[in-house]
Amino acid sequence: MLEVPKFKNEQLLKTALTHRSALNEHRFEKVESNERLEYLGDAVLELITTEFLYHRLPGTPEGKLTAIRSALVKTTTLSKVGRELNLGQMLYLSKGEEISGGRENDTLLADTVEAVLGALFLDQGLDIVQKFVQEAILVRFDEVMKKKLYRDPKSSLQEEVQAYGFETPAYKVIAESGPDHDKSFSVAVLVGGQKVGTGSGKSKQAAQQAAALQALHEVNFSTLRHK
Fold first, then answer.
1. 139-176 confidence digits (pLDDT tens)
2. Is 42 marked active-site?
3. Cα–Cα dist 4/202, whole Å
4. Residue 200, helix vs strand vs coil
5. Catalytic residue among 38, 106, 111, 114
6. pTM score, two decimals?
7. Is 186 in a helix, a strand, or coil?
8. Strand extents, DSSP E, 89-223
9. Cα 101 from Cα 93, distance rounded (Å)
10. CA-CA distance, 2 to 78, in Å (whole number)?
11. Who's near 63: CB < 8 A, 6+ residues apart?
12. Do 115 and 34 contact (CB within 8 A), yes or no?
């Protein structure tokens, strides 16, 4: 079972768990959001994952390594890690963000995972972060390779479901949020009329890819009933 690592400096962890929306409700306190830690954590995660793949897959071309790395650290994967760590319940959010479902938002959870990695790097160094990333993220490497999740998720999902006699997956927008210049979309993917995954993104296409990736990660299509 995954757990958030123990921090020497607990303020770093608190900052990693502070969404920018919370700042509006703490105007007179010295509070920082997790955005800078997220930026740092993203870079640390990329370095650790890149080094892992470089040694694990000798001779593999750069393009394929990049695709595999993307599959390992995509929003869908990181949000799943966030849920396993129960980060959603630990977040500092504004009331409005919480009401709108922020604690279950895939993008928000994935960003928080990266912020925690950035905070852990500052708190205890690269070796400790590397160990945690191995336990939380790189253990999914075998699944990524077996299911070829490094390929375009929508294409992989279509091949997977058709192999089991289902028709092409259907995608349905289930929610939109944000102003016109910064919209976010939530999409459900259906196979045989049954919802098998959901995803969020800044475009409908990105949300569809995220939904397809979740379905590939979590659904055993050999047990899915035909309607």
1. 999 999 988 888 888 988 998 899 899 999 999 999 99
2. yes
3. 28
4. strand
5. 114
6. 0.72
7. strand
8. 170-177, 184-191, 194-201
9. 10
10. 13
11. none
12. yes
CA distance linking residue 224 with residue 227, whole number of Å: 9
Give the C-alpha distances (Å, rounded to integers) separating 11 from 8, 116, 149.
9, 12, 37
Residue 114 designated active-site: yes
Residue that has been written with the tokens 């979740």 in this structure:
214
pLDDT digits (tens, 9 = 90+) for 127-142: 999 999 999 999 999 9
Structure tokens at 8: 């020497």
The full 3-state SS of 26-69, as one line of letters, equals CCCCCCCCCHHHHHHHHHHHHHHHHHHHHHHCCCCCHHHHHHHH
Tell me the residue length of the chain: 227
Catalytic residue among 38, 42, 111, 160: 42
Q: Which two tokens stand for residue 67?
A: 């695709």
